[in-house]
Amino acid sequence: MAISNEQAHTEEHGGNEGVYFAVFIVLAILTIFEVLATYIPGLKVPLLLGLMGTKAWLVAQFYMHLRYDTKIFSWTFVIPLVVGGLITVLLQPLVH
After folding, report:
1. Which of 55, 10, 7 is nearest to 29 (CA)?
2. Which of 24, 45, 46, 75 has its CA 20 to 30 A from that of 85?
3. Distance (Å, rounded) from C-alpha 46 to C-alpha 65?
4. What is the distance between the alpha carbons of residues 93 and 63, in angstroms, rounded to a whole number?
5. Cβ atoms < 10 Å from Cβ of 66
6. Per-residue model confidence as pLDDT tens digits over 25-50
7. pLDDT exceeds 70 at position 2
8. Domain with 28 in it
9. pTM of the model
10. Total count of domains within the chain
11. Spatial CA neighbour of 22 closest among 77, 63, 66, 74
């Protein structure tokens, strides 16, 4: 019995429509939390950075298929994300 291209893609990458829809819903909920976080004066920047990092990680892991690739691709994504977050946090006193 022959396997269709869609079935081969699903087996190779491990995801299906249900997984992608669940990630979409989580991303939408995190976006709502980001909008609400803008009204919290003291925790706004750290909270937004955490939510941003979480959303970026979800997109990279599921939609860019880094979850199913070798770990070197994940590290090339995580290291600049962490460095960018640290630079943003460390430069905040200069902005205010």
Report:
1. 55
2. 24
3. 27
4. 35
5. 19
6. 999 999 999 999 999 888 888 898 88
7. no
8. 5-95
9. 0.67
10. 1
11. 63
